[in-house]
Structure to design on (394 residues):
DNA sequence: TGACAAAGTGACCGATCGTGCTCTTTCTAG
DNA sequence: CTAGAAAGAGCACGATCGGTCACTTTGTCA
């Protein structure tokens, strides 16, 4: 049973790579199978259907997302330093983990936000979990803690800068996108810490 | 020759609608033809190929973008009020002009940013033009004018809030997204005006 | 080592894709 | 009104899509 799991993982990784490039709908099972080095029918020993593979791709991407971005910050105590690590890892995720395609979370969000179904539900759940984590993090940014509304406003802007960074870097070809995003985020932290209690 | 132009316009509008929903690649010529009420082969009297139609779609979307967002602000004198109108129209564009699909400019950007070719080039050119307009606008926000770097930082954040707004509203189901974006933008204008000369 | 399940292959299915062809209808300009 | 052009219909094509099935190979465990 070990061999199968390894192959399945390779399939999911390759499908995620292609989905980040062409979108989930744009991924053909033949292309994935060829890239992995098995036949198209061999693929069906690991997934019931293409939809089933899509679910595995979303799950896998969000797991990697957490590993790459949250894990390095998890050990630090809550506060500004930890938020800074998270933001920098998030930029790193977009730039280095998916250099050819751009962030698959963004791609999946844009593709699925208007397509109700289990796939969107799964992504929504994972993103809500991440949002909860970040809101908790922002609330602990300062003593006394930020209000819920303040934390929401801060996370809204943090996420916005991430999205803006990808658009600037990938669509507009802006080499300074990383710096622009970091500067905007640092300023956000500055003024958020300064809010009167 | 008049009839043809009208049909072509209907085709492009319908293709844009579907592209915003499923992505350009996800649009099939049969579906577009059916929705418009002509045969698939009749479609080819208006476009040489699917790629040709894609170009028309991008061009049309960016034209509507300018009409909806820039035109209502064009008459106003440069300054904060005009920027506020632009931002509000931009949100309106995302929310009301494409209620079922979300902003097609975002969708096209995410889809095309990793696909070199004339389609990406066209979108890039139009977005660069828009960016130029906005930078000029930000520079005139205050006397003495903002530096180029300050204007770039401001536009980066403005665009980010637009992207964050769509993600919050459509993917996260946040009914307050409009308010969050507007509040963030107003605060951006506040502190941008306040920068020491 | 032998048996059985898991993993993988190749041929094939019906549907749909973009696109070319010929033919008919419809519009429009003289 | 009429002739010619534009607009559109209908059909068929090769390719590719997701998916099935019978079969062979490979891995695992008693």
């Amino acid at each position: 049973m070990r061999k199968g799991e390894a192959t399945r993982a390779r399939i999911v990784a390759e499908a995620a790579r292609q989905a980040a490039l062409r979108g989930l709908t744009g991924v053909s099972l033949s292309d994935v199978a060829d890239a992995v080095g098995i036949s198209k029918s061999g693929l069906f020993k690991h997934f019931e259907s293409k939809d089933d593979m899509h679910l595995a791709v979303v799950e896998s991407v969000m797991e990697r997302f957490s590993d790459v971005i949250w894990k390095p910050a998890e050990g630090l105590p809550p506060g500004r330093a930890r938020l800074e690590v998270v933001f920098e890892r998030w930029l790193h995720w977009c730039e280095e983990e998916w250099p050819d395609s751009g962030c698959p979370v963004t791609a999946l969000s844009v593709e699925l936000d208007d397509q109700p179904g289990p796939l969107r539900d799964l992504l929504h759940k994972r993103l809500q979990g991440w949002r909860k984590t970040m809101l908790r993090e922002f609330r602990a940014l300062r003593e006394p803690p930020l209000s819920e509304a303040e934390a929401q406003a801060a996370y809204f802007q943090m996420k916005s800068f991430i999205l803006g960074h990808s658009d600037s870097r990938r669509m507009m070809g802006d080499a300074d996108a990383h710096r622009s995003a970091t500067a905007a985020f640092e300023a956000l932290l500055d003024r958020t810490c300064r809010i009167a209690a």
Notes: Residues 148-171 of chain A form the longest helix (24 residues). The mean pLDDT of chain A is 96. Chain A has one domain: 48-194. The domain at 48-194 of chain A is CATH 1.10.357.10 (Tetracycline Repressor; domain 2).
